[in-house]
Amino acid sequence: MIECALNCRCPVCRSCAIFRSHFGMNRECPRCHVVFWKDPGETLGAMYLDFAVASGSFLVCWAILSFATRLSDAVQIFVLGAIAAGSVLLCYPLTRSAWTVLVYLSGGIERPRLRTIQGGKKSA
Questions:
Q1: Where are the alpha helices (DSSP H) in 1-124?
Q2: Phi/psi of residue 97, each to 5°?
Q3: Cα 92 from Cα 111, distance rounded (Å)
Q4: Going residue by residue through the chain (124 aa), what tens digit of pLDDT does each one get?
Q5: Considering the entire predicted model, what is its pTM?
Q6: Which helix (H) or strand (E) holds 116?
Q7: Phi, psi for 23 (deg, rounded to 5)
Q8: Please, which residues have CB within 8 angstroms of residue 83's CB and are 6 or more apart in sequence?
């Protein structure tokens, strides 16, 4: 599952990509047709992961800047804010993919039911 999250792959079939572009997430898997996030509130968990990425990059870079440079506080805050925002934008697919895998592991994403054809008509 960790490999699926790091490679941004579907946690159900493990073969198709979750994203069609860096910021464009597929609504469903092109292969197994599982819907990734059904409810609008499911994005909140991914925002927590974004916050963790921003906080971690901010703190690590703050420690480096504080001990390695003599920049003023205003310049440090500007640089650290840019680094935190950039890290969130850079890691966007990874945080969304990790949250999708966590939703799958918690039972929020289910395998789609197979459609059968009976009497020449499609039934769900």
A1: 2-7, 43-68, 73-90, 92-105
A2: -65, -45
A3: 25
A4: 888 888 888 888 888 888 888 888 888 888 888 888 777 777 888 899 999 999 999 999 999 998 998 888 899 999 999 999 999 999 999 998 898 888 888 877 777 666 655 655 555 5
A5: 0.74
A6: strand 116-118
A7: -110, -5
A8: 57, 58, 61
